[in-house]
Batch of 4 targets.
Target 1
Amino acid sequence: MTRLAGLSWAEVCTRRLDRHQLISPRRGGSPADAVAAMCGAHAQMPSAAELSIGLRCGGVSRADVRAALWTQHSLVRTFGPRGTVHLLAAADLPMWTGALAAVPQRSGFPADVRLTLDQVEDIVAVIGRVLDGARLTVDEMTAAIVAALGPWAGDLVMPAFNGLWPRWRQAIQTAAYRGVLCFGPSQGRNVTFTSPARWLPGFQPADPETALADLLRRYLHAYGPATSQHFAQWLNAPRSWASALFDSLGDRLESVEVEGTPGWVTAGDSEGGTVTDLPRVRLLPYFDPYVVGGQPRSLLFPGRAAEGALSGGQAGTLPVLLVDGTVAGVWHHRVSGRLVDITVEPFGDLDAQQRRELADQVARIGDILEGSAQLSIGTVAVGAHA
């Protein structure tokens, strides 16, 4: 690994904003292009994912994102980094599944609940069979899996938001990482699952070693300079495993210091952004990848932002105001019909240019949500999202 000169935090922010398409949202760019650039859009809250994508694509609305997902199938809704629901670019799904299936998984379930490795393999195999050419609800999948494997698979032992889930659902993330499961369109209030091969003919997970190297390269392109520990946190992977992966790439990585702290980029990709006359203000929704993947937290959330925009050190639990790529406030929106009320709480004073750019961002959010937005400056009383 080669050591290079350092970058200022301003240069790092400009570099990341540019690569996330947040400096100049790409006019005519597709939702899939934006999702690929940010290494997946966190989609536990679908409306937040729609905003993350729309803010990176000029002229794109939430209807365009939904069309890309359910009509064009250029996006796939599945389990991504950290086991959380993400929108991923369909063209990247071989890389994602090849890489994520190779990341060591840790079970937090007690021994009397936890699946054995053989049980996981059996469940994933059944999921692959029953979803081949089909779209099933959770209840339909439970019935099929229990019929194939026995009552133990349906035991209600998993603590969940609304009670207990059947035991087999511990394997659902593994099934997604193996490429045999993704989300289908909801059936009323019921979540459905299907096989990504229905929409992606010939789909196969990529070779794990190649996929991991590709995923790390893309992560460093979007979030670098970063350390192996940052990468481990982003993936929820063991730190020792991530460190070994970085070491295995040898001279394909280069070291760059950020304000005296070392990080890594891919070889030949060490340039910072040029800090001149760039748009300074951006509004990002819940769990936007720029903040969830952004490190170091001490630089991204300076001063009051560490207390006002982080929840127990977790980023993304509140929508944030960025000024020059650094968190400088929080915001919240409420939709009533076509009216979108947006309240922004800056952590410091905004100058005239920043207020103009804030008004532009508010208008853009209204466009994405297919409504008309109005801005208020004041205190955001809504708490952090779990």
Note: Residues 81 and 235 are 5 Å apart (CA to CA).
Target 2
Amino acid sequence: MAFLILADGTVFEGKSIGAKGKVIGETVFTTGMTGYPETLTDPSYFGQIVTQTFPLIGNYGVIPEDYESKKCHIRGYIVRELCEKPSNFRTNGDLDGFLKAQNIIGICGIDTRKLTKILREAGVMNGMLVSDDVCPEVTPALLEEIKKYVIVDAVKSVQGAMVQEPLKNAVEPKLTEFYTKGYADGNGKKVALFDFGAKANIQRELERRGLEVTVVPYDTTAEKIISEGYDGVMLSNGPGDPAENVGVIAEIKKLCDYGKLPIFGICLGHQMLALANGARTSKLKYGHRGGNQPVKDLESGRVYISSQNHGYAVENDTLPANAKLSFINTNDGTCEGVNYTNIPAFSVQFHPEACGGPHDTNFLFDKFVRMIK
């Protein structure tokens, strides 16, 4: 058996999956219908107990070629129903075995719909996952222990997890003519990809466009980037509170002050680029996580469906004069993209490299290539 104890005292009872033990984390939900292996290996979920709202998880097993990093970064995993016998020609094992190998505690068989409603109404809250036959007594002391958990040093903690060498030899998806049409050719231009917890597919998308990608550590200085002659800078996604990364933000500001290198920021990179230019960020009530978030392009009026995974957002009304809001979330009006008018830089809160899908905003990588050229 296993139990989920929320910070408000709510208890869910279910079946234990994955590793045994006890863990505390920030309980969140994601609405993705596919891509659970990518979710499990996405460094942006560091410190979090992830709830899948889609009712059946594990039906196509685990596929190492699709991992977004070398290992699992979540604190715990919650599903309604676990498929114990996956069926897929690419599968390399079942989900329960993967969780055990990664030492991740999980629970299945609980009412994930009820849990999601609690998190939507009350907001993201901490929780404790316990795999045991008997539920711990829910005392004030236990709830205080759960509430005290805080995600700190998130970016630093996921360093070295990015898949790098296998990328060029990875199994390439069969891209349709529509999807490949209009690819910009980077012609070997050099891009520094800052690893704040980067998803592997960011590097794949850059390399597919003919760019030469060098992954650099999160704490690389602006002076080093400038001196090594890169043609562009990619600021990756990553976990945690963006404002925590004071040193990184200072280096991004130096790159902005230099003003000659094209910069493209995604998710955490988008937030820290905004902070470097004087904007502010704040924590959302329950965040945006899943593959069905609608974003509106304010220039064209077109709405795209995007993949997202973030708990913080740039505050729209704090953007400086040199920053123009480019995308908004049509559900709550929050900032989803910024174009900078004084430097060659832009950023988005969502994931144009999304895998599994949607690929609606994949064209933004072509925009970056054209900016470099």
Note: Confidence is low (pLDDT under 50) at residues 166-181.
Target 3
Amino acid sequence: MSGVQFTRRAAGFMAFAAASALALSACGPSATPQGSEGAGELSSEPVTLTMTWWGNDTRQANTQKIIDAFEKAHPNINIEPSYSDWAGYWDKLATETAANNTPDIIQMDALYLSTYADRGALLDLSSLGDALNTSDLPQAAVDSGKVGDSLYAVSAGLTAYSLVANTSIFQQAGVELPDDKTWTWKDFAEITKKISDSGAGKYYGASAYGFEDGALRMWARQNGDQLFDKDGKVVIKQETVKSWWDELKKLTETGSVAPASTTIEKQSGGLSESLSATNQAALGFWWNGQLTALSKASGQDLKLLRVPESSGGKYWYKPSMFWSASSRTQHKAEAALFLDFLVNSQEAADIQLTERGVPANEKIRTAITPKLSETDKAVVAFLDDLSGDVGEAEPVTPPGGSAIEALLKKYTEQVLFDQVSTDKAAEGFIKDLSSEIQN
């Protein structure tokens, strides 16, 4: 799944969020020309839609092929593309939005969705009526694109939190793979300890969590808690965060996960230098869409497992990314037509496959599965198997919430190196994250 390389975004988030907030201050809800209900009539005259996205060369090439296919089917509509890498994308989009020149079609990320929606930059897609069909998407996937009661984004693809297991290390350690539908955190600790003991420093039972929000959100859901509420407030309990770090500290001290120094060194190197990619950990915490990249890097047979104690609605669908439209678009009907093509067209799906994640459209997902690589088929199968355990969508990350991973990295490092107690780390994290939220 080459398009779903969820990098470990950390310090850069706060800088991009700050730039977006400053630039977007010129655009407020009062400036939102939402228009009348429905997408309106398609024009018979020439129409140009601007479109922007971030991504690698493969995504650029595939997206251009999708644009070409759409333009062939609709000769009077021209799509004007613009793309960049992640680092420059948000500064550019913020500047364009502040100048009232937001592209008509926008590739959007969950970390910034509410920032742009709250400032009136995005079109409420529910206003498009039947012109944008979401009936073949799971309701939880549709809800993930809502801010309040309005739909500001539609999922381009889905992913879910998981553990990636290196079956070769399990075999070397003489340990069987767990039943991931019934295992507990106690089982996890015992299994990983056995593997680490067997490895004697050559490999470990697991790599540490603590550097991105997926693990914390899962822990919160397992403990009847959540990170944010629907109003964008930080509502997670201090005890929940403390217990999360307590567990990590215990796993580190007993040797179930790698030592703190190894964890920090490997964490800074990204996916290719991770313990999972270098065959030094039997288990690693990843989004399931990263399986293909990890398999290529490791050269090993890797298997997706559920996180311990995650049945009963604890799971959620995370959009790999979204599609949004500008509230200032002068061509709602054409924008709706193109969005529908991106989400629901078999032709577009055959070009894109899983490059932007596993398609949220369940009919499309079924149709493309025979064309996928074995690892991408495993990614799809994992999502399909989760369907009965997927609960409500996570509340959208509020403006300023993009700082979360930089804050987690800071406090996790301090906890691992005994520079702060887990209680004080939890207190500081909640206070710092709350101060970043723009209410």
Note: The CA atoms of residues 4 and 148 lie 27 Å apart.
Target 4
Amino acid sequence: MSQNAEDARRRLELSQSHARGETAAAQKLVDDFVREMTERGIPTERLRARLFSGQEVKTDKRGWYIRKNKSLAIGEDGNYYPLVVPGSLMDRLRGVRLQAAPPPLVVNRGGRDGESGDLAEFLAKRLAEG
């Protein structure tokens, strides 16, 4: 293996290790949030998603929205759910099955001001709102 290939492999390993560490730390924040919301008796609600076309549809999950625009939620199952999803005509009629994503420590990294921020801040704000 050439030195360049070895360097590339090493950079990839480091990047993947960092991503796993970030996901583990973010998941701890999510787990603490779910525990706290449950202990406080703050009810979940049926989550709704927005299709790329802009239409709102029902989903198969319950949880708590963590952004005012309802584009992200934490499920009662402890998963992190992006709520802007692709969809078809059938999805508009019957709803969508949400797919959990690995939680990030920084929500919407690289987004415009007000759209991105620390996951911990989004969760703390939602906890404060009850």
Note: The radius of gyration is 17 Å.
